[in-house]
Amino acid sequence: MSTADPHCIFCKIVAGQIPARKAYEDDEIIAFHDINPWAPVHILLVPKPHIVSMVEVLPEHQPILGKMMVLVPQLMRELGVTDGYRQVINTGRDGGQEVMHLHMHAMGGPRPWARG
Ligand code: AMP
Ligand code: ZN
To answer: Is 34 exposed, middle or buried (0-12, 13-18, 19+ CB in 10 A)?
Structure first.
């Protein structure tokens, strides 16, 4: 689980080399506010190991992905989101993925939103 890519921006956030506004952190997962939010609340949940995308997911990643899913309602609640939210995982170039380190967007708050 110690995989990291020295050129990856999210690995640098995991390592504390680039600042981020953190919403959650444990030994496996970090969550922080998106720098370019689409919605009043827009966080990214990132597994700490450098998994490129959902295409590279292996059976051994099942617990960490399950944990990310279960964390979302807790974090949304903590951030004051009371009327629903969207979860999005962009996968690969045609899926609109720009940062090639697996992450889940969680977006909520009153509409209208900037996007989505
Ligand atoms: P995606 O298109 O799913 O790869 O989304 C990548 C997201 O990462 C975009 O919404 C960006 O605004 C966001 N992002 C990129 N760099 C940073 C950063 N340094 N801190 C927080 N969010 C970032
Ligand atoms: Zn990475």
So the answer is: middle
The pLDDT, as a whole number, for residue 2 is 54
Instruction: Choose the residue to mutate in 32, 36, 87, 88 for probing ligand 1, maximizing ligand atoms within 8 Å of C-beta.
Output: 36
Torsion angle of C-alpha atoms 35, 92, 73, 20, degrees rounded to 10? -30
* Residue-wise pLDDT tens digits, 35-59: 999 999 999 999 999 999 999 999 9
Nearest to 13 by CA among 72, 75, 99: 99
CA torsion 109-73-70-39 (nearest 10°) is 10
pLDDT at 90: 98
Ligand 1 atom having least distance to the Cα of 105: 3
Contact 99 CB / ligand 1 (< 6 Å): yes
Say yes or no: CB of residue 35 within 6 Å of ligand 1.
yes
Place of tokens 């807790």: 74
